[in-house]
Amino acid sequence: MTRNELKEKLFHLLKDDLEAPGLHRFSEEAKLNEDLCLDSVMLLQLIVQIELELGVEIPDELLIPKDFQTVSTLLDFIENLQAEVKES
User: Which residues of the chain are modeled with pLDDT < 50?
Assistant: First the structure.
């Protein structure tokens, strides 16, 4: 899946599944917490949705706050997960 496809999928997860209130500010530079108004519970829900929708497992030890700061850092994190799955 390309980065743009991941970005679109992430937008739809935030819109349809989480009903994130700050989606009008969605961009790669948008901060998940401050710009998109995601609280800690919504971030956990997002992680579950990413696992379900993208078919990747996110081990707890990989959950590092820096990967969940912006849309861009989250996309980087997902791309790295997908690359690891392909290598396995």
Answer: none
